[in-house]
Design a protein that fits this description.
Layout (H helix, E strand, L loop, with lengths): L1 H15 L6 E3 L2 E6 L17 H7 L4 E5 L2 E4 L3 E2 L12 E4 L1 E2 L2 E2 H5 L2 E4 L8 E2 L4 E3 L2 E5 L7 E3 L4 E4 L3 E5 L7 E3 L7 E9 L3 E2 L2 E2 L7 E9 L3 E2 L3 E2 L14 E5 L3 E2 L3 E50 L17 E4 L6 H10 L5 E2 L48 H29 L1
Parallel strand pairs: 2-3, 3-6, 4-9, 5-10, 6-11, 9-12, 10-13, 11-14, 12-15, 13-16, 14-17, 16-19, 17-20, 18-21, 19-22, 20-23, 21-24, 22-25, 23-25, 24-25, 25-26, 26-27
Antiparallel strand pairs: 1-2, 7-8
Helix pairs in contact: 1-5
């Protein structure tokens, strides 16, 4: 009799203390987020209402499903100090398990509101995909600050802006703090203001890698830091572009203490293309450069000196294997920059056509002010969301345990009845 009582006790305790919060299943840990959420994150109806809390639940990695509108109007800085850092990548999306919450509930991840602006500072690797990233409010810049973590902006991203807000910007390192490590940014879709793979206003000690295969870019795109004299990097800079529309400057805009390498195999380019490393290597396989204003190749002084005490100068290396546009125009612009390109493309060579060039209308000032406010989330209101079957796994476990308890109690009662008989 005693062993049945012990078994029943442990079964009941397991059912009571079954872990709550993010759902664990075949797809890994999943947590739902929306304004006004007061649940444990295990379902759309039980969503959490705080990004910081959602990341705590997914600290070991998983999927964060934005199932309604989520907005914050002041700076959010995720951090190890308060447990809101993640040790494995977190996917942020509004499409999960066959449901597109953008269509169902108007889901969007919103930086700022009518009365304010906001930046998001990460403390781990992230992947954004199939989500609406919206900026709203004043003309102050909004940015995802990656703090030298690997961050991908994948397929299916739609960027929106409201009021005087510019499109979202991306900073691979930090706004103002000098960091070290490896910056890695991947962009496949979306519309953005500025992209700096390293720092925006501070130096970075390490390498920076920027890979772009799609998207629209209104402002500067740099595989190093911002070209402001303060955002140099000590390591190497790598830029790989296979698609996208670039309205303004692109290249390694901030000084690169190591080598600067760029490979371009697609895209539409306007403005200036600038590369600033101790050695600059550019390989062009495809792309439209007819509207490029100028190429600029700046050889940064190497720390290694020659025996004569002069700075070691390494020639710029440019190779043109193909172009979607006028080859002579491209070669002429390169020669005007003081380089003699190695041209391997035949006259009139045009690779497969890339997508048609489209640029959104530019609104607001080119250099918006920044806004780093205190750490807190914004308003907690949201449209109602529909339920989902994603928490059925826990429900099935609880039901099975309850049934097991009932069966154990029945067996125990039957044994007592037989003993009395």
């Amino acid at each position: 009799m005693k062993k049945y009582a012990i078994f029943l006790l442990f079964a009941l305790l397991f059912a009571v203390f079954l872990p709550a919060g993010a759902v664990s299943g075949e797809d890994g840990n999943v947590c739902f987020l929306k304004n006004g959420g007061q649940g444990d994150g295990s379902s759309p109806d039980g969503a959490v209402g705080s990004l910081r809390e959602a990341v705590r639940l997914l600290s070991g990695g998983g999927t964060l499903v934005v199932c309604g509108e989520y907005s914050f109007s002041e700076y959010i800085g995720l951090s190890e100090k308060d447990g809101s850092a993640n040790t494995s990548p977190i996917e942020v999306t509004s499409v999960w398990n066959g449901s597109d919450y953008r269509m169902q509930n108007g889901a969007a991840f919103c930086f700022g509101g009518p009365g304010g602006s906001a930046n998001l500072s990460l403390a781990g690797d992230f992947v954004f995909h199939d989500i609406t990233l919206r900026t709203d409010g004043s003309s102050a810049e909004r940015a995802v600050i990656c703090n030298a973590h690997s961050v991908e902006f994948g397929e299916g991203i739609v960027c929106e802006k409201r009021g005087q807000a510019p499109y979202l910007s991306i900073v691979g390192s930090s706004f103002d703090d000098a960091l070290d490590g490896e910056c890695s940014i991947v962009i496949k879709s979306g519309t953005y203001k500025n992209v700096y793979c390293a720092g925006r206003g501070a130096a970075f000690d390490g390498n920076a890698r920027l890979n772009v295969s799609g998207g629209v870019f209104e402002g500067e795109v740099s595989s190093s830091g911002r070209g402001d004299g303060r955002s140099e990097i000590t390591g190497d800079s790598f830029l790989n572009v296979s698609g996208g529309s670039f309205r303004s400057g692109i290249g390694a805009l901030g000084d690169v203490g190591g080598e600067c390498e760029a490979n371009i195999s697609g895209g539409f380019f306007k403005g200036e293309m600038r590369f600033s490393g101790t050695k600059n290597t550019l390989v062009i396989d495809n792309g439209s450069f007819d509207d490029v204003g100028a190429f600029v190749f700046r050889v940064v002084e190497d720390e290694k000196k020659t025996t004569d005490g002069e700075a070691a100068q390494v020639p710029n290396s440019v190779t043109v294997n193909g172009v979607s546009g006028d080859l002579d125009t491209l070669v002429g612009k390169l020669k005007n920059a003081g380089v003699e390109p190695a041209v391997n493309a035949e006259e009139g060579y045009e690779p497969a056509e890339t997508a048609a060039e489209t640029f959104p209308a530019t609104e607001g000032p080119d250099e918006p002010e920044t806004d780093d406010g205190p750490e807190e989330t914004g308003p907690e209101t949201a449209p109602p969301s529909r339920g989902d079957s994603t928490d059925r796994g826990n429900a099935v476990i609880v039901t099975a345990l309850v049934a097991l308890c009932v069966m154990s109690a029945a067996v125990f009662a039957l044994r007592r009845f037989r003993l009395r008989s």
